[in-house]
Amino acid sequence: MSLSALSALSPLDGRYAAKTDKLRPILSEAGFMHHRVKVEIAWLQALSAAGFAEIKPFSAAASALLDKLAADFTEADAARIKAIEAVTNHDVKAVEYWLKESIGLPLPSSYAHLPARTLNIDASITEELQGAAEFIHFACTSEDINNTSHGMMLKAARDTVMLPALQELVAKLTEIAHANAALPMLSRTHGQPASPTTLGKEIANVVARLQRAAKRIAAVDVLGKMNGAVGNYNAHLSAYPDYDWQAFSRNVIEQRLGLVFNPYTIQIEPHDYMAELFDAVARANTILLDLNRDIWNYISLGYFKQRTKAGEIGSSTMPHKVNPIDFENSEGNLGMANAVLKHLAEKLPVSRMQRDLTDSTVLRNIGVGFGYTLLAYDSCLRGLNKLEVNPARLADDLEATWEVLAEPVQTVMRRYGIENPYEQLKELTRGKGISKEALREFVSGLAIPQDAKDLLLAMTPANYIGIAAELAHKI
Asked: Which intervals hold domain Adenylosuccinate lyase PurB C-terminal (predicted)?
């Protein structure tokens, strides 16, 4: 069977491919190759500006050509690197060969079976860059290129795709919180009627949690290292023993690649920041999973209706149903996302001695964890956009549960020194409903000041909401 959206093993590249498109240029294998090209070029350009006798500063034209190779990288270029890798059996070496080929140098004879590439390069630029060809990948171990590429990929995915998607969700929830800030709603603790709140305040609680979670995601420093085979600049110093390679590496990583320099590593950057990032995303996902389940319950209680779309079917046999499928879809995909993200966070900081390749294997699944996360955000947002509040149902629930006012009544009784207020209200209300009339009769018979009694008699389940509306408006 040929590979297509219908034959893809993962729904991220099949059924839901369109919803994860934004991540594909960044976190796919072609995206990985593209970022490796960017890193190799940045390193080469920095070497040309370092003042070494053996590599002169590049002309503006030569540097512009290298920039263009990085900027104009295509899927066809990725396919060419993949074809070279089929011979090298080494992905980073394949990128090095592709770069040399891109400046007009022939591939080794073992690649004679590959069709020649047509290059339109000015001869003088070709000569200049070919003279510096052996400084491509100079003193680097593959992990110098890979860890910085992963860092750039993660930073781009986080900043341009994941955080904007999360912030769009937060904006929608904030809108719902403000619109329903003063709409009274019966709370349920342990699934049972509890002190009233407002619908807007309950949504505001989630907004506050997600805002903190988004800050944690954004605050993770994305690290990088370019310090050789075991982190000590051994090869670098063998060629130029008097050069400050640590300062050079820091400059490339921070100024050219936009990452944070990590001076202490083994062969690999230890991936602790990745664990922090994946844990932070998983934490946001858990908050959202909690919201999905609550919205599901509120729909089942009738607090929300769902706007229907012409032609859609809720159930194959029960035409009256409008199932909360978006929130169910979001919940399921958040579970898939967190399973991957948590494994990445637990596994990646662990490496045998100075290096083993288990990290390389699992790092190829970053797109899976982020993809399921993005899919879940999209599903939740679609569900939120279909919701309609049902004020009548909320009001009915409140009117049917006057027993929730036992809390303010016994609190006022405590203020005025009436003995055993909790026990008196417990006897009156526990495990059974109580009518408005019965509660008012109880209050009327209390030996408390008349103004306090009037305040209690004016209370209803719908207006006993504390500062819920104020809090919801503030979010």
From this structure: 351-465
- Rounded distance, CA 12 to CA 340, Å? 14
State pLDDT tens for residues 441-473.
Answer: 889 989 999 999 999 999 999 999 999 999 999
Closest CA to 284 of 468, 471, 158: 158
CA–CA distances in Å: residue 473 to residues 168, 384, 388, 428, 469: 18, 19, 19, 36, 6
Among 2, 109, 113, 190, the active-site one is 190
For 120, the 3-state DSSP assignment is coil
User: How far apart (Å, rounded) are the C-alpha atoms in residues 305 and 314?
Assistant: 13
Q: Which domain holds residue 158?
A: 142-391
Q: Is residue 120 part of a domain?
A: no
Short-list 332, 333, 341, CA closest to 369: 341
Average pLDDT over residues 188-200: 94
| 297, part of any domain | yes
Residues making up the chain, counted from first to last: 475
Q: Quick check: is 110 catalytic?
A: no
Beta-strand relationship, 304-306 and 387-389: antiparallel
- Same domain? 305 vs 414: no
Is residue 190 annotated as part of the catalytic site, yes or no? yes
CB–CB of 281/217 below 8 Å? Answer: yes
Each residue of 225-249: pLDDT tens digit? Answer: 999 999 999 999 999 999 999 999 9
Specify the CATH number for the domain of residue 232: 1.20.200.10
Catalytic residue, from 315, 320, 330, 360: name it. 315
DSSP letter string, 250-296: HHIIIIIS--EE----SSS---HHHHHHHHHHHHHHHHHHHHHHHHH
Reported pTM: 0.92
